[in-house]
Amino acid sequence: MSTMKTTRDVRGVGLSIPRPDGPEKVTGRVQYVADMTSRGLLHAKLLRSRHAHARIVGIDTTRAKALPGVRAVLTARDIPELKHKAPTRAHAVLAIDRVVFAGQPVAAVAADEAAIAEEALDLIEVQYEVLPAAVDPLKSMQPGAPPVAELGTEADTSEALAHSAVAMAKGEAAPAKAVNISQTAAVKRGDVAKGFAESDLVLEHTYRVPMVHQGYLEPHAVLAEWDRAGNLTLWASTQGSFNTRSEVADVLGIEENRIKVIPVECGGGFGGKIRALCEPITALLARATKRPVRYVMTRREELEAGMPAPQVIIRLKTGVKRDGALMALEAETVLESGAFSGTVLAVSAVFLGSLYRWPAFDIKGSEVLTHKPSVAAYRAPVAPQTIFAIDSHMESLARALALDPVEFRRRHLQKPGEPMVNNQPWASNGAHEVLTRIAEHPLWKEREAWKKSSGNGHGLRGTGLALGGWLGGLQPTSATVKLNPDGTLAVLTGQVDIAGTNIALAQIAATAYGLDIDKVKITTGDTDVAPLTGLSAGSKTIYTVGTAVLQAAQNARQQTLEIAAKELEASVQDLEIVDGKVIVRGVPDKGVTLASIGKKGNLYMSKVEPVLGVAHPAFSQQAPAFAAQLARIEVDPDTGQTTLHDFVVVQDAGHAINPLGVEGQMQGGAVQSLGIALTEALMYDDSGRLMNPSLLDYRTLTAADLPDIETIIVEVPSPSGPYGARGVGEPPIVPAPAALANAIHDATGVRLTEVPLTPERIALAIAAKG
Amino acid sequence: MILPGSVKECVQALAEHGAAAKLVAGGTDLLPQLKNHLLKPGVVVDLSGVATLKKLTADKGLRIGAAVTARELERDGRLATGAYRGLAESGALVGSVQVRHLATVGGNICNAAPSADMIPPLLALDAEAVIAGPRGERRVPLRDFITGVRTTVLGADELLVELSVPDPGPHSGGAYLRHTPRRELDIAVVGVGSQVTLANGVCTKARIALAAVAPTPVHARAAERALEGQALTPQRIEEAAKLAVEAARPISDQRGSVEFRRHLVRVLTRRTLTTALARANGGQA
Amino acid sequence: MNVRKQAMTLTLNDELVEVLVKPYETLLDTLRETLGLTGPKEGCGTGDCGACTVHLDGKAVASCLVLALQARNRQVRTIEGLGTDDTLHPLQDAFVRHGVPQCGFCIPGVLMAAAALLAETPRPSDEEIRYGIAGNLCRCTGYTKMVTAIAEAAAAVPQGAR
C-alpha cells in the first residue's frame, strides 16, 4: 500500500487511499437491496404495456387474484392518490386510462414468491385500444402529432435545478398545435445574419445522439415496509435518500416524517437512480398487504422502462473567416424527453454558444415528448451530446481552413471571466490547461507518423482529441463531526457513497481537524438520523458535501481548541493538534489529549460541552471542470471495425483529494463515453417498441474492446472548493464521442455526425466515398 | 424435470411426454426463454447426465457428441490444426467464457437461430446429424437438418445425439469469421465458414456457409462451384466472394441492415477463403 | 405453482450440501434465495453480464443459465468460497489495494472469472486477462485497474495454487 501513497499531506488530503469497505465488496458480503430480506417478505412484479400508446378499455384481475400465493393485485383504480396530468414518472405510478410508452406499468402484483407474482401477471387481462404513437421527436414536435401528455401538464424543471445552476430565459411559446413541445429556451447575442454574410466559410451539420441507458449493473430495487402507526421504511438503491423521501411523500400525500429512507449499497446510478421510479408502487403494495414487499426490476424492464438519457439532435451552423476568426453560430437543439418532461436545456446552450468565443449566436432549444420511456440524468446530462456537436464542428472548421486543430480551439476557447451565453462570467476553470497538456502528449505529437503507418497489413490509422466539461452541480447540504470519548472522530452525512466518496470526505475531515485518517470514521445515515444531504450526482459530492465536512471539521476543531485553551490556560491561536493531542505550539510536553477532551464531553456531572461540529452550507458559485481525451485508433476499412489502441484522459480535478478515486472516475467515465461513441443506442421500431432489450444487443463495452485508459490529472485549484477540489465524476464522460469522430475522420477521411460510430456506419460511409 | 442417464432413457422420456417435453443441454438458449416467459414446457429433460453425448472422437473424421461445449471446441488440440480450425474458431466466438462452458454444439444446432456460430463450419465440413428416436437412429445431412427459423427436422420424439464429420482429407483448411460490434459477448451480424480441399494445387472441394443472412444458415453454392477445379488465386477468391453475396437473403434488423450484411458477406467470404487456403497449404494462419 | 421440489446434493464451497429445488429454478436462485449466498448477483438473468459467475467443477459459468438440478453431485464455488474468512485471496487483496471496486456489484463475478482464468492460465498476458473477463460487464471502473490488479495477483500466486 505504501507504494500507492503520494505523500503530500500526512493527514489525508492528496493521498491515494483505498476505500475501507473494499474487503466487504470483494468478498461479496456487501448487501444490495436484492440481497436483503425481511420476515414475511412478499415479491412484487409489474404488468407493463406492450404498446407505446393505447387507451386502456378494461382490466380484469379476477383470475390473478384467485391464484394461490397472490396477496394483492393493484390497478390505478385501487390507488386514490393517482391523478391525471402526472408531472413526473414517479407520480404516474400506474397508468390510469391511457398508456404513453411501451413498458409503462398498468397493474402490480405482490405474492409469496417472485415466480407466483410472475404467473399472476399472465392471468391479468388488459384490453387496449391501440393509438398512433409519436416515436420520432422531429415528427412529434410538429402540429398534428399524437399527443403524449394530458393538456395542461406542467413542464418539470427540477432536473435542471439539480444539475446546473445556469439560468436561461424561456423561449417563445411553442406553436399552439405543437402539443408535444413541453419546454423551450432561447438565447441570442449580436447580429447572426450579418456574421454569416461576412463569413468566408459556412458549415452546417445535424448531429444526433440516440437515447442511451446508464447501464448500472444493479437494476432498480426497493424493499418497503409499514409499521402499525403508518410509518413507511424504504430500503432503496438510490443516489439521494432525501430526494427519494420527498418524491415518495409527494406521490403518496404523506408527511416526510412518516417516511424513513435507508440508502442501501447502490450498485451504480449515473443519474438513473436520482428520481423515484419503483418506490411508490412498492410502498403501495406493502400498504395493501400489510407485509414487507421487495421489488427488483429485471434487466429487460430496466432497458424498456428505466429512465435513460434523452436523444439529442443538434442542427449547428457556423460561419468563420478564412483566417479562422469566428463570426456567427446558429443552433437548434431538440431534446427528446420521452413520455414525461424533465430534461436540461441550459447546458447545451452554454457549451454551444460560449465554450468558444462566438461574437454572434442564436440558439434555440426544445424539449419534445414522445411515446417512449421518460428520461433522466445520465452523468453530465446533455454535455457529451453537445460537445459531440460543437467539438466535431470545431475540428471540421480547423481542417477545412487547414489550421492546427488544437491551436484553433485554444485561440477561441473562452477564459474565466468571459461571458457565458447567459452573460454570467465563466468561473475559474482549467479548460486551457487540459487542452495544452493533452497537446503535449507524445501520442498527439506523433499523430502524423501513426497515420502514415496505415496499410501494409494495418487498417487506416488516425488520432483524434476533444475537449469537454461540466459546469458543476450545486445543492445545499450538511454534515456533523463529533469527537468521540476516546478521541476519535465521527463524521455523519446522508451522502450515498457509490464510487468511494466517503474515504475522500474522511480525508478532508482528517486534514481539517488535524487527525490521522485512521482515527476518522464516516457514516452515511438514513433520512431519520442524517442531516439533510444532497444527491450523489452532478459532480458535487466533494465540492459541496466536502465543503460541509470541511466546515464541520473546522468547527469541531475550534470547539476542541477552545476547551483545551481553558485547560491549558493558553490562547486558541497558540494551540495545535499533534498526534492526538492539543499542545501549545512549541511546547510539546504541555498538552491535553483529544481522548480526555472527548471523555469530558460525556462524563456524568461534567461541565465540558461535547464537541459537535456542524455545517450546513448553501452554494452559489459553480466550479466548472474540464477533460480532454485523445484516441489513437485503427479502422478496418472493409468491416468498419474500430480498434482502440490508446486512450488518454487529461482532467482538471482542482485538487485531487484521493487520486486513486479520481483515476477510477476518469477511467470509468471515459469508458461510458466510449460506449456512447461506439456501440450504445436504445433502438425503437416504428411502433415505439424497444428492439434491443438485453445486454447482448444493448452493447456496453467489455474489457476486450478496450485498452488501458491512461489518466493525467491536472490541478487548477477552484477558489471555492475544499482544498481547491472540483467535481470529477462528469467531465470524463463528455469528450469521447467527438474525440472518436475526429479520430475516425483523421483515419478515413469520413466525417460522421451520428453516434454510435458503428462499424456499419463507418464501412458504408467509406464505401460511399469510394 | 427428467434426468436420464443414457440416450435410450432420453428417447423413452420423449416417447412418454411428446411435444410437452423440452430438452436442455447447456441451457444457454432455454433459460432466457423460460425467464422471459416465451416458453412454458410441461417437462424438461436434462441431458447433462448423458455421458455419451459429451464425447468428441477424432479418427478419420470427427464424431462430436451433441453435448460437447463451445469451450471444448475452442480448446481441443485436435481441432487446432488446419482442417478443423474453423470449428474451433466458431466455438471460441460464442457468447462469453461463462456461456461457452455451458453452450453445446447440439443446442446451437437445434435452437436453429439464423445467427448460430457453430453451424457454418459444420456445414462447410459436410457434417451429418445423427438422430435417435423410437424407431432407432437416422442420419440427416446438416444442410437438410434446419428447415427454418428455429425449426428442424427433429420429431417431437427425437433427439440429436451426434454430429458426424467426414474426413476432409490431408490438404484441407477451414476458417470461420463473424462480424460483431463487440469482440466478445455478441451475436453475429454475419458469419461465414469456409472450407477448401486441395489436390495438386487445385481446389477439389470448396464449401462456403453463411450465417445470419437468411432464415437458416445457407451454402453459397455458386461461389463453391466457381472455385472447384480451379487454382485459388486472389482473383478467383474475390469472384467467389462476389458470388457468395447472391446466396444471401438478409433482412434489416437491430443488428445490421441488408446493405451492410451483403457487404460483409463479400468481405468475410474473401477473408475466410484466403485463410482456409493458407491452412490447406499447411500454413499456420 | 405447487410444483414438487426435488432434493439434491452438491459440494458448495468445499462443503456437502443438500437442498430442495424446483425443477426450473436456476442455480443462481438456489444459491441466493435458498442457500443465502448473495455474493453472486443477478445483473441480467440471461447470461449477458457475468455478475452471477460461479465455478461449476472449476469452470466459470453464468449461474443464471444453469438449472439448479444440473449442479447435482457437482462442485460449486461462489465468491464466498474464494478466500477464507481470515485471508483474502490474492485477487481480492489486489482488488482492494488498487481501489478497483466502485459500486461493487460486478466485483464478485469478475473475481470468479479471474480466478478461473488464473487456474487455467497462471501467467496471463494483459490481452488474455481482458478476454478472460470480457463476459463480465462493469460500468464503473473502465476495467483498467481490474486488469492491473489481476496481473499483479497472477504474479503473486505461486504456480499450481488455486
Structural description of this entry:
In chain A, 28% of the residues lie in helices and 23% in strands. With 770 residues, chain A is an alpha+beta fold. Chain A has a seven-stranded mixed sheet with strand order 3-5-1-12-9-10-11, sandwiched between helices. A five-stranded mixed sheet of chain A has the order 7-15-14-13-8. Chain A starts with 21 loop residues before the first helix and ends with a helix. By secondary structure, chain B is α+β, with helices and mostly antiparallel strands. Chain B folds into two domains: 116 residues, Uridine Diphospho-n-acetylenolpyruvylglucosamine Reductase, domain 3, CATH 3.30.465.10; 109 residues, CO dehydrogenase flavoprotein, C-terminal domain (Enolase-like, domain 1, 2-Layer Sandwich). In chain B, the strands form four sheets. A five-stranded antiparallel sheet of chain B has the order 3-4-9-5-6. Chain B has a four-stranded antiparallel sheet with strand order 10-11-12-13. In chain B, strands 1-2 form a two-stranded parallel sheet. In chain B, strand 7 and strand 8 form a beta hairpin. With 162 residues, chain C is an alpha+beta fold. A five-stranded mixed sheet of chain C has the order 2-1-5-3-4, with helices on both faces. Chain C is globular, with a radius of gyration of 16 Å. The chains are: A alpha+beta (770), B alpha+beta (285), C alpha+beta (162). Chains A and C meet through helix 1, helix 3 and helix 19 of A and helix 2, helix 3, helix 4 and helix 5 of C.
Helices and strands, with pairings:
The complex is a heterotrimer of chains A (770), B (285) and C (162).
Chain A: H1 22-26, E1 42-48, E2 54-60, H2 62-66, E3 70-75, E4 98-99, E5 105-111, H3 114-123, E6 125-130, H4 137-140, H5 158-163, E7 181-189, H6 192-197, E8 201-209, E9 221-226, E10 232-236, H7 241-252, E11 259-263, H8 279-289, E12 293-296, H9 299-305, E13 311-320, E14 326-338, H10 346-354, E15 361-369, H11 383-400, H12 405-412, H13 431-439, H14 442-445, H15 447-452, E16 460-470, E17 479-483, E18 489-493, H16 501-513, E19 520-524, H17 541-568, E20 575-578, E21 581-584, E22 587-593, H18 594-600, E23 612-615, E24 625-635, E25 642-652, H19 659-678, E26 709-714, H20 736-748, H21 759-769
Parallel strand pairs in A: 1-12, 10-11, 14-15, 18-19, 25-26
Antiparallel strand pairs in A: 1-5, 2-4, 2-6, 3-5, 7-15, 8-13, 9-10, 9-12, 13-14, 16-24, 17-18, 17-23, 20-21, 21-22, 24-25
Helix pairs in contact in A: 10-11, 11-20, 16-17, 19-20
Chain B: H1 7-17, E1 21-24, H2 30-35, E2 43-46, E3 56-58, E4 62-65, H3 70-75, H4 85-93, H5 97-100, H6 105-111, H7 119-124, E5 128-133, E6 136-141, H8 142-145, E7 146-148, E8 151-152, E9 159-165, E10 172-179, E11 190-199, E12 202-211, E13 218-219, H9 221-227, H10 234-247, H11 258-280
Parallel strand pairs in B: 1-2
Antiparallel strand pairs in B: 3-4, 4-9, 5-6, 5-9, 7-8, 10-11, 11-12, 12-13
Helix pairs in contact in B: 9-10, 10-11
Chain C: E1 6-12, E2 15-21, H1 27-34, E3 53-56, E4 59-62, E5 75-77, H2 90-97, H3 107-120, H4 126-132, H5 144-156
Parallel strand pairs in C: 1-5
Antiparallel strand pairs in C: 1-2, 3-4, 3-5
Helix pairs in contact in C: 2-5
